From TrEMBL:
Belongs to the peptidase M14 family. GO terms for biological process: proteolysis. Transmembrane segments: none annotated. Its cofactor is Zn(2+). InterPro entries: AstE_AspA_cat, Peptidase_M14. Residues 30-306 form the Peptidase M14 domain. Keywords: Hydrolase, Metal-binding, Zinc. GO terms for molecular function: hydrolase activity, acting on ester bonds; metallocarboxypeptidase activity; zinc ion binding. Gene3D superfamilies: Zn peptidases. This is Putative deacylase. Signal peptide: none annotated. It comes from Rhodanobacter denitrificans.
Length: 308
């Protein structure tokens, strides 16, 4: 059943034009600081890691440097682990979980695997606590050739030299109550489609790549995170966010077909995390820790099981 949920921008049944996007963009206010909350933390890591700008987003509302954190002892013969966060800028633990992993756990992997971490792919969205970029584009549906999203294109350029050498890629995300209250209604309005209400899963889950699901890898991550926070149960119809649950806490997407970040490399082990920060059973600290633990478990599995 669909609902003609009201959204205050655009004409129902018609995709947005440029004027609608401009109205939407004018309503997006800065609510937190990328420089103070993210870039400043990255600066503190320069003493122990190689930190570089891999691009810059230039928008009329501001300019944002994009940071990558690399192992200082990078060795070409070692495999590569790629960690991405903040592809959806509003998903806070994706950003801060990635930084927590670097701060507290990355040193454990020195000399064993090369680490490449892009902790905040979408700083404009981070500041405005939004899923989209200022062009009303979802970066996590835009990882494809000639991407219209600056955020996606910049990350793909960063990763391109190592795409075939990445052994593990974990992309850190959240599913929030605002997905239903704001972002899915906005998406329906933007595309001129009826809004179809959904449910928000209470707990952590993973999205595997249906092209190479690696179920044992996914379950190793789930088992580690279950020690930190609860795993989302399936809805009564056996789905999570409308996708069939294929194993405890795991659904699957075709990452490359959908233009998802998890599909940008040929890594044999790849996954997308989803935590639920609005749960009464989880704190922000738990969400950050769950993301960091997921990264560790994913790397540990990739190291123990070679090239898959």
């Amino acid at each position: 059943m669909t609902s003609p949920a009201f959204y205050p921008i655009g004409t129902p049944g018609q995709p947005w034009g440029g004027a609608d996007v401009a109205v939407w963009r004018s309503r997006q206010a800065v609510r937190r600081s990328y420089a103070a909350e993210v870039a400043s933390l990255i600066e503190t890591l320069r003493a122990r890691f190689d930190v570089s700008d891999y691009g810059r987003l230039d928008y009329p509302s501001g300019s944002y440097p994009l940071f990558a954190i690399k192992s200082r002892d990078w060795r070409d013969e070692l495999p590569i682990a790629l960690v991405t966060g903040g592809v959806h800028g509003y998903e806070t633990s994706g950003v801060h979980g990635a930084l927590q992993f670097v701060e507290r756990h990355a040193a454990h992997y020195a000399g064993r695997i090369n680490l490449l971490v892009a902790p905040c792919v979408s700083p404009w969205g981070y500041e405005r606590i939004h899923r989209w970029n200022p062009d009303a584009l979802d970066p996590n549906r835009s990882f494809r050739a000639d991407s219209p999203a600056q955020e996606s294109a910049a990350l793909m350029r960063l990763v391109a030299p190592w795409r075939e050498r990445v052994r593990m890629h974990i992309d850190l995300h959240e599913t929030t109550d605002s997905d239903e209250s704001e972002f899915r209604p906005a998406l329906a309005a933007r595309d001129g489609k009826p809004y179809e209400p959904g449910t928000i899963p209470d707990g952590f889950y993973l999205c595997a790549d249906s092209a190479n699901p690696q179920p044992a890898f996914q379950q190793a991550v789930i088992a580690a995170v279950a020690k930190v926070t609860h795993i989302a149960p399936a809805d009564p119809d056996g789905t999570i966010i409308g996708s069939p649950v294929v194993a405890h806490g795991v659904i699957e997407y075709d990452c490359r077909k959908l233009g998802l970040c998890a599909g940008i490399t040929d890594a044999p082990y790849r996954t997308t995390t989803e935590v639920y920060p609005d749960s009464p059973r989880a704190t922000p600290a738990q969400c950050n820790a769950a993301q960091a633990v997921a990264v560790c478990a994913a790397i540990d599995y990739a190291l123990a099981h070679g090239a898959g």
